């Protein structure tokens, strides 16, 4: 039987509009490949007596991520005709920073995980201190990439990118979200609290990824707002799907430990709405995300299709 919260979420659920998935898998694979090549060129080659930390940075980055944030940067940049090299550099910065967050999140003092992206976590493969330093190295590298002139000839644009990433990743963004997550009570944590937590912890970085295109193109605030709104809906749909996988999936399919939220008694939209309600909510958010791009033509079709492909991951 549906809970009332699930019934509420289910109200959002209408049948799915026609979604053009053609070309999406190929585009995702192509973006991931280009990203790996760029990251390989940018990441320092292990050398000297500090080689170990650079080996750990490379281990974490090349452990097989889906490169979703880079795909969002590249796709949003393509909408505005941003030169590919610039978009790839912005994408590399965000992927380096995202990987740092995963390395630190997996540490024994945080989520204490042994498995990430289907492989031993960085502190298991190396050691705890090296994993902390590797995360620090990736975080700082992200900003080094953004402020180099190869990212954009305009210093103002480079500053906006660096400030945007700092805001998304800092204590009013991802770090703040992680803090709330660690302090979150197992009771009296409602849907609104969960949405706020997720918007900071994972959503802020998605917002930055989607806004990188219009910022690189100097396309103006209206374009940035459209991409930000798309990212908000996409980010929450992504998180709900991740929670569904955590709640229902296998560690092998997820490439990481599952069932942790439930074991720790953490509230998620799945525990609040139930699996069916959460799925309906994710579907509604995917539809809304696609609608946010109504002002663009067929060049935005990959971005329109992505949230639907994403929410099908848990089935
Ligand atoms: C430690 C400062 C600090 C922050 C950690 C983002 C985050 C904050 C922790 C990650 C923990 C987690 C599992 C969050 C759920 C959603 C999420 C970000 C999943 C990983 O992103 P994917 O699926 O991963 O894009 P890949 O490996 O494909 O890059």
Account of the 3D structure:
69% of the residues lie in helices and 1% in strands. It has 315 residues and is mainly α. It has a two-stranded antiparallel sheet with strand order 1-2. Helix 10 (191-217) crosses helix 11. The two termini are 20 Å apart. The site of geranylgeranyl diphosphate (GRG) has 15 residues, from helix 5, helix 9 and helix 10. Geranylgeranyl diphosphate binds at residues 65-66, 68, 101-102, 104-105, 110, 117, 174-175, 178, 201-202, 242.
Key features?
mainly alpha, 315 residues, two-stranded antiparallel sheet, 1% strand, single chain, binds geranylgeranyl diphosphate
Share in helix: 55-70%
Bound molecules: geranylgeranyl diphosphate
The run of helices and strands is HHHHHEEHHHHHHHHHH
Radius of gyration, taken over Cα atoms and rounded to an integer in Å: 19 Å
Low-confidence stretches: 1-13
| Shape estimate | globular
In the sheet with the most strands, the strands line up as 1-2
Number of continuous helical runs: 15
Structural class: mainly alpha
Task: Summarize the helices and strands and which ones pair or pack.
Elements: H1 4-10, H2 24-42, H3 51-61, H4 68-79, H5 84-105, E1 115-116, E2 119-120, H6 122-125, H7 128-147, H8 155-169, H9 174-183, H10 191-217, H11 221-248, H12 251-254, H13 260-263, H14 269-291, H15 301-311
Antiparallel strand pairs: 1-2
């Amino acid at each position: 039987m549906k809970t009332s919260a699930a019934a509420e979420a289910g109200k959002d659920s209408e049948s799915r509009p026609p979604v053009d998935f053609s070309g999406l898998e190929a585009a995702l694979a192509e973006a991931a490949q280009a990203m790996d090549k760029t990251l390989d060129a940018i990441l320092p080659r292990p050398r000297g007596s500090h080689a170990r930390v650079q080996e750990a940075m490379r281990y974490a980055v090349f452990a097989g991520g889906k490169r979703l944030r880079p795909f969002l940067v590249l796709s949003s940049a393509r909408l505005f005709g941003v030169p590919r090299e610039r978009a790839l550099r912005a994408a590399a910065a965000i992927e380096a920073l995202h990987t740092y967050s995963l390395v630190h999140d997996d540490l024994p003092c945080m989520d204490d995980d042994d498995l990430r992206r289907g492989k031993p976590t960085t502190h298991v493969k190396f050691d705890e201190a090296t994993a902390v330093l590797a995360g620090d190295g990736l975080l700082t590298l992200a900003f080094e990439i953004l402020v180099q002139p190869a990212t954009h000839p305009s210093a103002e644009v480079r500053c906006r990118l660096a400030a945007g990433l700092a805001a998304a990743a800092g204590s009013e963004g991802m770090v703040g979200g992680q803090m709330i997550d660690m302090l979150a009570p197992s009771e009296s944590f409602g849907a609104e609290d969960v949405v706020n937590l997720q918007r900071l912890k994972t959503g802020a970085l998605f917002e930055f990824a989607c806004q990188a295109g219009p910022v690189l193109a100097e396309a103006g605030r209206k374009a940035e707002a459209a991409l930000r709104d798309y990212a908000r809906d996409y980010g929450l749909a992504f998180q709900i799907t991740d929670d569904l996988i955590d709640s229902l999936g296998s560690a092998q399919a997820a490439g990481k430990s599952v069932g942790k939220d439930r074991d720790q008694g953490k509230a998620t939209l799945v525990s609040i709405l139930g699996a069916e309600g959460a799925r309906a909510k994710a579907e509604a958010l995917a539809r809304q995300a696609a609608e946010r791009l109504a002002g663009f033509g067929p060049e935005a079709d990959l971005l329109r299709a992505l949230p639907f492909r994403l929410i099908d991951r848990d089935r």
